[in-house]
Amino acid sequence: MSEAPTLDAVRHNTGPSRRFCVAPMMDWTTPHFRYLARILSKRALLYTEMVTTGALIHGDTERFLRHDPSEYPLALQLGGSDPGELAHCAKLAEQFGFDEVNLNVGCPSDRVQNNMIGACLMGHPDKVAEAVAAMIAATDLPVTVKHRIGINGRESWDELCEFIDKVSAAGCRTFIVHARIAILEGLSPKENRDIPPLKYDWVYRLKERYPHLEIIINGGIKTFEECHEHLRHTDGVMLGREAYHNPWLLAGVDTEFFGEPAPVANRHEALRAMFPFIQQELDRGVYLTHISRHIMGLFHGMPGGRQFRRHISENAHKHGSGLEVIQAALARVRMPEPATVAES
Ligand SMILES: Cc1cc2nc3c(=O)[nH]c(=O)nc-3n(C[C@H](O)[C@H](O)[C@H](O)COP(=O)(O)O)c2cc1C
User: Fold this and answer.
1) What are the catalytic residues?
2) pTM score, two decimals?
3) pLDDT (tens digit, 9 = 90+) per residue, 183-192?
């Protein structure tokens, strides 16, 4: 049976709402995408791309942790396994203003496996527990873990529970569970996001077995209807690819899951709200393509959406391209009709 939460776990009971989260995604959930996501939803909890402890400690720390204050609530995801290094990076997360620090125990890439980062750590629950304890001791931020339901060769229910038992005993009270195993040899990271079957019922069972823990479900979720169904069994949902490819979905989150007004009325307004930030980034030397590729999904499925994307693809990479490319692309999609005022 699971143990009662420790005092430390209770101390870490605070933090942002995780009812609706946008998943950490390398090269995708960059500061530019997150800026757009935050225009669309004030309440979704955003996660950074994974940053390894090695990169943070030995690389350009400021660059890796750079974000705009408007992105809050924002969680920093770390990749690593050395308790001392993770503790140091958790402290950095706090100093730089993040709202949560998350440990990646789900990434299956070979590159990270060789460094004992990511999903391979599911085979070493004691090591994860030690790392989490060190992080908790180093920061007042909530420390959370994102993981799979198993890895090949270690995919039983009992082994999953052993992982949760040990890591929760170390003080972690929030587990973000990608509802499939990772196969560590023979599948690419992309295949590992599609091929192992989703087992949502395992995540539901975790919540039943550990009611005192916060369990967030992830993997293959696309619609609000699906989110509501998962929320009947878990504490929160995390969406990755759908939120990136169809970011307008985020514009409904505040109303649908928090009962608050939507921050923007339409896609045009959302993109225009990004213009000052785009200009600021261009002024500091960022290439337009590094920003524009993250707004390509905004008119997904809309009349004119294809022309919008084509204009950006054909022009953003040209030397000296600026905000005018985005403005011209926007002009290719028709403004929605203003809503008719209901007669009283
Ligand atoms: C391009 C890409 C990059 C990803 N990078 C990370 C990462 O850095 N850290 C992580 O924990 N998961 C990463 N993931 C996995 C997602 O966070 C998520 O668990 C997975 O995509 C399943 O959720 P979804 O079906 O809603 O996309 C990545 C996924 C994609 C598509």
Assistant:
1) 107
2) 0.94
3) 998 899 999 9
Atom 4 (ligand 1) nearest CA: 25
Confidence of residue 8 (pLDDT cuts 50, 70, 90): very low
- Averaged pLDDT score across all residues of the chain: 93
Cis, peptide link before residue 261, omega less than 30° from 0:
no
Does any domain span residue 341? no
CATH number at residue 236: 3.20.20.70
Task: Give residues with Cβ within 8 angstroms of 189, minimum separation 6.
Answer: 107, 108, 109
The CATH number assigned to the domain holding 286 equals: 1.20.120.1460
Structural domain harbouring 179? 7-258
- Tell me the CA–centroid distance for residue 133 and ligand 1, in Å: 25
How many structural domains is the chain composed of? 2
Q: Are residues 231 and 274 in the same domain?
A: no
Residues within a 6 A CB radius of ligand 1: 23-26, 28, 49-50, 77, 104, 106-107, 146, 178, 193, 218-221, 239-242
Dihedral of the CA atoms 186, 189, 192, 195 (nearest 10)?
Answer: -80
Cα of 242 to ligand 1 centre, how many Å? 11
Compute the distance between CA of residue 253 and CA of residue 21 in angstroms, rounded to an integer. 10
